[in-house]
Amino acid sequence: MDSRQSDSSAPSPEKTAIVVEQARVSVMYERLDTLRAQTEQRLIDAHLQERSGYAAIVERETRSYEHARRRAQLGSVEEGLCFGRIDLAHGPEETEARYVGRIGLRDTEHETILVDWRAPAARPFYAATPGDPEGITRRRHLRVRDRQVLGVDDEVFDTEGLSEGDRRQLVGEAALLASLHRGRTGRMADIVATIQAEQDRVIRAQLAGVLVVQGGPGTGKTVAALHRAAYLLYTHRRVLERRGVLVVGPNPAFLRYIGDVLPSLGETDVVMRTVGELLPGVAATEHDTHRTALLKGSPRMADLVRTAVRDRQRSPLRAFGEDDLRVETDAGTLLVPGDLCAHVLENARNLRLPHNTARKYLVNTLLTELGRAESVLLGRPVAEEDLPHAGARLWQEEPVRQALDALWPDLTPQRLLRGLYSDPEALARVGAEAGVAEAGSLVRPAGHAWTVEDVPLLDEAAELLGRDDSVLRARQRRMDAEREEEVRYAQGVLDFTGLTEDPAEGLDAVTLAARHRDSGPNLSTADRAGADRTWSYGHVIVDEAQELSPMAWRTVMRRVPTRSLTVVGDVAQTGSAAGTDSWLTALEPYAPAKVHVEHLRVNYRTPAPIMAVAADVLREAAPDQEIPESVREDGQPPRAVRLADLRGLPALVVEERGAIGEGRIAVVTSDASLAEVAALLPGAGRPGAGSGDEPGDSVVVLTATESKGLEFDSVVVVRPEQILAQYRGANDLYVALTRATRRLTVAHEAGLPGILDRLAG
Ligand SMILES: Nc1ncnc2c1ncn2[C@@H]1O[C@H](COP(=O)(O)OP(=O)(O)OP(=O)(O)O)[C@@H](O)[C@H]1O
Q1: d(Cα 215, Cα 228) in Å, to the nearest integer?
Q2: How many Cβ atoms from other residues are within 10 Å of residue 259's Cβ?
Q3: Own/partner pairs for 1-5, CB < 8 Å, 24+ apart?
Q4: Does the chain have fewer CB atoms within 10 Å around its N or its C terminus?
C-alpha cells in the first residue's frame, strides 16, 4: 500500500510518483488529442470526396463508417483514459512499466504507450494476486481526474511473509473502496479500473459454451457480464460484429439502469431486450398472476401450442359439420369428397413444414380438386395440366377462400393465441389433447394486452407457424447471387484500404458487404438483429436469469444456436413462479456437458451490518446458498422503525434524505401495499410511470420484485411481513434488504417478523 514519508523537507514518495505518472499520462492525452484531430480530419475528407459509381461510394462509406466509429471510441475515453500500471520483471535489471487504460495507444514510433484493458497484456493488472503475481512486481492504481493525476495506490507483490488470508485479499483495495463509496446516480457505472480477480476470470472466459455466473446480491454479476460483453466484442470482433450480442434483462427499468455501461466502454452495438420484447413487434411489460405464470412457463406449454396449431388444421367435418367439402361458387356448388380431403390434410401434416408453408400445399391441392369438380359440374373437361389455372381462378372467389381458410387458415402467432385464449371450448379441447388439464384457466377476453409470459408462447407459435415466404425466398435467391458478387467486391475494397490490418478494428468482407446492402450503410448489426425474430446472435447474455421459465429459455436458446451464452443470476433471489432454482436443470438440456458454473462470492454493494440482516432471511429462503461476504465493513447499522400507520412514511423519507444528502432513496414494499405507499409519496418516481426516466428520480417507490438488480444509497423496506407472505416471499425480502449501499430502514406497524429479530435489539 502507499508508503508515507516522515521527513517533511523532501517530497513524499507519493508526490514523486505523481510527478512521474503525470508526465506519462500527459503524453497519453496529447496523443489522444492528436488522434482525435486526425480522425476528425479523415472523416471530413471522406465526406468531401467527390465520388461516383457504386465502387467509389462503397469505399467512401466504408472509410466514413470506420472513422466515425473511431471518433466515437476516442470520444468515450476522456475520463479515466489510463487508470493503472503494472511493473514486470524481465530479468534482475530489466523492468517494464506497462500502462493500462480504456483503449490502446501507440506513439508516433508505433511504441505502445497504453494497453487496452481487454488485451491479453493487461490481464495481470486484474488477475495477479500475491499468491500468483503473474510476473508482475507491482500494481499501481492511478487516480486521475480532468487529466490530472491526483494520487496513486501501490501493491507490491512480495509473496514472502504473507499469510494465506492476505494472499486471498482483494486486489487494489484502496481504489476499490474509493469507488464503492461513491453516491449512486441511478445509472450503473463501469468498473474497468477496479475489476477484481474473480470477476476477471468471468470477463475473460472463452466465448464458446454456457458460462453461468452464480453469485449473491452485489457480487458484481451484472457489471462483470457487461464488461464481458465489451471484452468479447473486442477479442472476437469479427464474429460478434456480424452476428451481434444480445443482452436480456428483467425489465425496462433495469435495462435503463445498466444502459450506460457498454457505451462508456466504447461499445454500442449490443441489442438489449427484456423477455417481453424478444419478439419484434410485441413489447409486453405486464405480468400474469403467479398461478398463470407458472402454467405459461411450464414446458408443457410447448405441447399446448403445438396442439393448438394442429387444432386449426381441420377436416370438413370439424370445420363445417359435413363429411365433404362443399363450396358455393359462381359455377354452382362444388364438392370434394371427405376421404380425399382427409388424405390431403394428412399429407400436408406429414410434410413437417411450418403450418403456413404447408398451407400452400393444401390450398393448391384442394383448388385443383375444386377445378376438377367445376369441370365435371359444367361438363367441360379440362386437361390435367390446366387444372391449376382453373384453381387459381377459383381462388379469386370469396367463398372458396373462406372455405379453405376454415380448413387451414393462414395464422400469425397473435391470431392463434388470441383465438385460443378467448375460446373456452378450444382451450378445453386442446388442453385435454395436450395433457394440460388446467388450460381452461388461460381463458381471457380477446382484447387483453400481451403479458411477458405470453411472449415465449407467441415465439413458440411463430416457430411452428412460419411464414408463407415463397415470394421472399425467390427474392432471397436473387439477392444471394448479388451478395456473392458484393462480397467479392468488398474483399477488394478491404485489400485496397488496408482496413483489416488491426485485428481490433478489423472488418471482414461479409460484414462490409452486409453493411452496404439494400438497407444501406447506416443500419447497424444491432438494428438488423433487433428487428428480426430469426436472427442468430453470436453471443447472448442473460441477466437475472433465475427468473426465466423453461418456456422463456426455449425463446432465448432459439436466438443462439451456437449456445454461446453468459447466464448471470442468483438462484436464492428467484421471485417468479416459473423461475429456476437449479442452473443445470434449466440449461443442461440445451448444451449437454457445455455448462460451466463460476461463483462470485464477494459483495461489493451491501455493507456488512446490513448483509447480516439479509443473511438471516437467506438462511430461511435458501438454506443451501452461500452468504456472500461484504467487502464493506463500514456503514450505518440498519434499523427498524415502528410507525403508528403509514402516514409516518413521508417523515421517514425526509429523515433519510437528511442522513444521506445527495443520493437515491428507494421505498420498497409488497405488491399489496404498493398503491398505498405510492399515494403517500406523490413526488416519488415509479418505474414505467412515464413521468420520465426513473433512474434520475431521487426517491422511488418499488415492489420487491421491481427492485431486483437495482441499488440505492438508502432503502426503506415497508411492511416486511407482507413481502414475506408473498409467493417466494423470503426471496423477495432478501432482494429488498440487499439493495442498500449505505442505509437500511425497515418500517413496520404490527411488529417485526421473527426472521428480522436482529433488528429488534
Ligand atoms: N470490481 C468492482 N469495482 C467497483 N465496483 C464494483 C465492482 N464489482 C461490483 N461493483 C459494484 O457493486 C455493485 C453491485 O454490482 P452488480 O449490480 O453487478 O451486482 P449483482 O451481483 O448483479 O447484484 P444483484 O444480484 O443484487 O443484482 C455495483 O454498484 C457495482 O458497480
Answers
A1: 16
A2: 19
A3: 1/153, 1/154, 1/155, 1/173, 1/174, 2/151, 2/152, 2/153, 2/154, 2/174, 3/154
A4: C
Residues in contact with 320: Cβ distance below 8 Å, sequence separation at least 6, in sequence order: 326, 403, 406
CB atoms within 10 A of CB 620: 16
**C-beta of residue 62 within 8 angstroms of C-beta of residue 9:** no
Atom of ligand 1 nearest to the CA of 708: 27
Which residue's CA is minimally distant from atom 30 of ligand 1? 220
Q: Cα torsion at 22, 27, 32, 35 (round to 10°)?
A: 180
Distance CA 649, CA 647 (A): 5
What number is the ipTM of this complex? 0.98
Helices (H), 447-508: 454-465, 470-497
Q: Is 575 in the pocket of ligand 1 (CB under 6 A)?
A: no
Best of 141, 187, 191 for a ligand 1 pocket test (most atoms within 8 Å of beta carbon):
191
Q: Which of 110, 104, 39, 100 is nearest to 69 (CA)?
A: 39
The answer to whether 21 and 82 are in contact (CB under 8 A) is no
115: closest CA among 107, 106, 156?
A: 106
Instruction: Say if CB 123 and CB 99 are below 8 A apart.
Output: no
How many Å separate Cα 177 from the centre of its chain? 28
d(CA 576, CA 549): 8
- pLDDT for 600-627, tens place per residue? 999 999 999 999 999 999 998 888 888 8
pLDDT of residue 132: 80
| Ligand 1 within 6 A of CB of 221 | yes
Position in ligand 1 atom list of the atom nearest CA 219? 21
Residue 57, SS3 per DSSP: helix
Give pTM, 2 decimals: 0.81
Closest listed residue to residue 226, CA positions, set 205, 247, 244? 247
- Ligand-binding site membership of 216 (annotated): yes
Q: Is the CB of 251 under 6 A from ligand 1?
A: no
Instruction: Indicate left, alpha or beta for 321 from its phi (over 0: left) and psi (-120 to 50: alpha).
Output: left
Q: For residue 477, what is its C-alpha cell?
A: 435467391
CA 254 to ligand 1 center in whole angstroms: 13
Location of C-alpha cell 413521468 = 691
Three-state secondary structure call for residue 683: coil
Residues sharing a CB contact under 8 Å with residue 210, sequence separation 6 or more, in sequence order: 563, 564, 565, 567, 587, 590, 591, 594, 595, 596
By the 10 Å C-beta count (0-12 exposed, 13-18 middle, 19+ buried), 145 is classed as exposed
Q: Tell which atom from ligand 1 comes closest to the C-alpha of 196.
A: 1
CA 176 to chain centre: 26
Question: Which residue type is seen at 307?
Answer: T
Q: What is the pLDDT of residues 643-667, one digit of tens each?
A: 999 999 999 999 999 999 888 999 9
Exposure b/e, 324-355, CB count within 10 A at least 16 = b = ebebebeeeebbbeeeebeebbeebeeeeebb
Q: What does the H/E/C string look like for 360-380?
A: HHHHHHHHHHHHHHHHHHHCC
Q: According to the annotation, is 729 in a ligand binding site?
A: no
78 vs 265: CA distance, rounded Å: 11
Name the grid cell of 513.
458487404
The H or E element that residue 701 is part of is: strand 699-703
- For residue 16 the three cell numbers come to 514523486
- CA 403 – CA 365 distance, rounded (Å): 14
